[in-house]
Specification:
Radius of gyration of chain B: 11 Å
Number of helices of chain B: 4
InterPro entries (chain B): ACP, ACP-like_sf, PKS_PP-bd, PP-bd_ACP, Ppantetheine_attach_site
Shape of chain B: globular
Oligomer: heterodimer
Strand order of the largest sheet of chain A: 3-2-1-4-5-6-7
Keywords (chain B): Cytoplasm, Fatty acid biosynthesis, Fatty acid metabolism, Lipid biosynthesis, Lipid metabolism, Phosphopantetheine, Phosphoprotein
Structural class of chain A: alpha/beta
Number of strands of chain B: 0
Number of strands of chain A: 7
Helix content of chain B: 55-70%
Largest sheet of chain A: 7 strands, parallel
Order of helices and strands of chain A: EHEHEHEHEHHEHHHE
Pfam families (chain B): PP-binding
GO molecular function (chain B): acyl binding; acyl carrier activity; phosphopantetheine binding
Pathway (chain B): Glycolipid biosynthesis; KDO(2)-lipid A biosynthesis; Lipid metabolism; fatty acid biosynthesis
Largest sheet of chain B: none
Order of helices and strands of chain B: HHHH
Largest interface: A-B, 7 and 4 residues
Distance between the termini of chain A: 27 Å
Helix content of chain A: 40-55%
């Protein structure tokens, strides 16, 4: 089950906590993986720990040209692209009334617009090959909202809507498009929480703990597999019961 | 019939699974040949590949019949 031997996967934000776990899990299942991110040294470190079947393409997802170059570069490196994981994400938290235009723009550009451009580029080859898996990493706050994260919540809710629209368009071509929505996961993004915030959050999670990157990664592996062929347009919530839909 | 027209018609027949005699110059991909909007995008991609030419989006929008495709490719393909 969930064998990805010979499949070609591109993971954005691969040096992040969740992105690294996703890249590792896809690779463990046999996939050829292209790691993308902004930090060359971190990408190289991850690539070295994975061993063979790994490529690196640096990309700055807030830059249009860099985004447009990414899918072609990955397709050249791997001679194809079967699985696109739009994982890269940034936060620029601020109270709504104080939020700067650039805080809004940056988050929308990286979290939503880059995912749009990458999916648009990837789906072309996938249509030709009559096979594809696009997995967008959303967030629980895309469904629940979160004070201080108007921009982030909007970007993640946008991903969910985009996932459904694209899923409907390309379903007949054997391409599935899904979303995985993590709750609070141990990662650099949640390491910045102070003890009090952490305790407050734990109180809202029925499981009583933060999730692990690997627990997101295994959901991605499932949706990337041929076994998940009939699942599309779905948002899979992985949040320890924090919100149930 | 030109060589370009032959190649275009072959692609359309293969791609849409229609009878060759239906693929006439004034056949509209969507109305006459049963293509959906995604099929038309794929046809353009197939033409690009076959004729090694790039068809920009605004030009692609003007290609609605078999004849449109033949005319465009005769003019623009190397």
């Amino acid at each position: 089950m969930f064998d990805l031997n010979g499949r070609k996967a591109l993971v954005t934000g691969a040096t992040g906590g969740i992105g690294g776990a996703i890249a590792r899990a896809l690779h463990e299942q046999g996939a050829i993986v292209t790691l993308s991110g902004t930090r060359r040294s971190a990408l190289e470190e991850l690539a070295a720990s994975l061993g063979e079947r790994v490529h690196i393409v640096e990309a700055n997802l807030s830059d249009k040209d860099s985004v447009e170059a990414l899918v072609p570069a990955a397709e050249t490196a791997m001679e194809g692209l079967d699985i696109l994981v739009n994982n890269a994400g940034v936060t620029r938290d601020n109270l709504f009334m104080r939020m700067k235009d650039e805080e809004w723009d940056t988050v929308i550009a990286v979290n939503l617009t880059a995912a749009f451009r990458l999916s648009r580029a990837a789906v072309k080859g996938m249509m030709r090959r009559r096979y594809g898996r696009i997995i967008n990493i959303g967030s629980i706050v895309g469904s629940t909202g979160n004070p201080g994260q108007g921009n982030y919540a909007a970007s993640k809710a946008g991903l969910i809507g985009m996932t459904k629209a694209l899923a409907a368009e390309v379903a007949s071509r054997n391409i599935t498009v899904n979303c995985v929505a993590p709750g609070f996961i141990e990662s650099p993004m949640t390491d910045v929480l102070n003890e009090k915030q952490r305790e407050g959050i734990l109180g809202t999670i029925p499981m009583g703990r933060l999730g692990q990157g690997g627990e997101i990664a295994s959901s991605v592996v499932y949706l990337a597999s041929t076994e998940a062929a009939y699942v599309t347009g779905h948002t899979l919530h992985v949040n320890g019961g924090m919100a149930m839909f | 019939m030109s060589d370009v027209a032959d190649r275009v018609k072959k692609i359309v027949v293969e791609h849409l699974g229609v009878d060759a005699e239906k693929v006439v110059d004034n056949a509209n991909f969507i109305d006459d040949l049963g293509a959906d909007s995604l099929d038309t995008v794929e046809l353009v991609m197939a033409f690009e590949e076959e004729f090694n030419v790039e068809i920009p989006d605004d030009a692609a929008e003007t290609i609605v019949t078999v004849g449109d495709a033949v005319k465009f490719l005769e003019k623009n393909a190397a």
